Amino acid sequence: MITAIVQYRLPPSIDLNACDAHFRNIAPGFRDVPGLIRKQFIYAEDGWAGGVYLWQSRADAEAFYTGPWLQGIRDRYGMDPQIKYFHTACITDNAVEAVLLPDAAE
């Protein structure tokens, strides 16, 4: 599994409420993204936003980030996002009372 942290700077016109409304509007569209396990939509008070994504593989992540999603970020925020990839060794998920262990290292 791969965790990707994606960040981009918001224009000053987009505050927390506007960002939350946008995220809630687009969240259902991520249900069918190939290889995506989970996405957390994030906002920071310093004007940066983005997501923390959990992927089956880096190939899945890179396929998504080079597709129409990238152009949407460029169009909305006028920049390429910053993306950092992390190998995910395991996950403690207290919501389902489980520790998830990937079968193979990516």
Written overview of the protein:
With 106 residues, this protein is an alpha+beta fold. The chain has helices at residues 16-26, 58-65, 68-77, and strands spanning 2-9, 36-43, 48-55, 82-87, 91-93, 98-100. The protein has a single domain, classed as 2-Layer Sandwich (Alpha-Beta Plaits). The protein has three helices and six strands. The longest helix is centred in the first third of the chain and has 11 residues, at 16-26.
SSE layout and pairing:
Layout: E1 2-9, H1 16-26, E2 36-43, E3 48-55, H2 58-65, H3 68-77, E4 82-87, E5 91-93, E6 98-100
- The end-to-end distance, rounded to whole angstroms, is 6 Å
Which CATH architecture?
2-Layer Sandwich
Helix content: 25-40%
Count of DSSP strands: 6
Number of domains: 1
Biggest sheet: strands, sense, closure?
4 strands, antiparallel
Helices and strands, in order, run as EHEEHHEEE
Question: How many separate helices?
Answer: 3
> What low-confidence regions span 5 or more consecutive residues with pLDDT below 50?
none
- Strand fraction equals 25-35%
CATH fold-level assignment: Alpha-Beta Plaits
Categorize the overall geometry: globular
Structural class: alpha+beta
Q: What is the top-level CATH class?
A: Alpha Beta
